[in-house]
From TrEMBL:
Coiled-coil segments on the chain, per record: none
One Pfam family per UniProt: TetR_N
Stretches assigned to the HTH tetR-type domain: 11-71
DNA-binding region in chain numbering: 34-53
Signal peptide bounds: none
PROSITE patterns: HTH_TETR_2
UniProt keyword list: DNA-binding, Transcription, Transcription regulation
Protein name: TetR/AcrR family transcriptional regulator
Record keyword Transcription regulation present: yes
Length: 219
């Protein structure tokens, strides 16, 4: 009878450690976040943290894994509704903005790769790569649907990585100004321009029987 309550307490302690560590690492980075900081913030002894995770690397891997699972579960399916490229791109960017707002720590944790590369374990670095690759794969599939790029995967990959770099840059800016938001208007313009640079059709196809815009204006 006592095993279940003990397991519940252990799960609550583990979640409290992960909540605290995720917030601290997203705010200060991996290198600047210590076990003592996590212990003081969550109110649990360092021995409990080591018992659950073994090391700071172990905490970082668990934090990243939980953030990756939560963010990917929140992302919509790659198919984008809309009659033309502009409408589908608006739908995609609205989804990106929504995920960015609801998961403020996610991209900041992902940016930790540069800070952990030198002294983190292979498991921590591998989890960062899994996190990043999963986001690229989702953005790739979504932008394939937006621009009709099923036969041009290299262009879709470039657009996906550009989108995530923009989002990452906004996450960096938030370290200095928490009110900064992702500028989807500028990103919309930039993605259309980048697609057009690769000769991807980005304008709506006129409806059958409709006059071109300049002809309609002359009428």
């Amino acid at each position: 009878m006592t095993q279940a309550p003990a397991q519940d307490r252990g799960a609550r302690s583990r979640d409290a450690i992960l909540d605290t560590a995720g917030a601290l690492m997203a705010r200060y980075g991996y290198a600047a976040t210590s076990i003592s900081m996590i212990s003081a913030e969550c109110g649990l002894p360092a021995s409990s943290i080591y018992w659950h995770f073994g090391s700071k690397d172990g905490i970082y891997v668990a934090v990243l894994e939980r953030a990756r699972i939560a963010l990917l579960a929140a992302l919509p399916r790659a198919e984008m509704a809309g009659a033309d490229v502009a409408q589908r791109l608006d739908a995609f960017l609205a989804d990106v903005q929504d995920a960015f707002q609801r998961h403020p720590h996610g991209l900041k944790l992902l940016l930790g790769l540069g800070m952990v590369q030198q002294d983190a374990s292979a498991a921590a670095v591998a989890e960062v790569h899994r996190y990043r690759d999963a986001l690229v794969a989702w953005a790739h599939a979504a932008l394939c649907a937006v621009f009709g790029l099923d036969d041009r995967p290299q262009v879709a990959d470039e657009l996906a990585r550009f989108t995530l770099r923009m989002a990452s840059g906004t996450a960096v800016a938030r370290w200095f100004d928490p009110s900064v938001g992702l500028d989807t208007g500028q990103l919309h313009v930039a993605l259309l321009a980048l697609a057009a640079h690769h000769d991807v059709p980005v304008r709506a196809t006129p409806r059958e029987g409709a006059l071109p815009r300049d002809a309609a204006d002359r009428e």
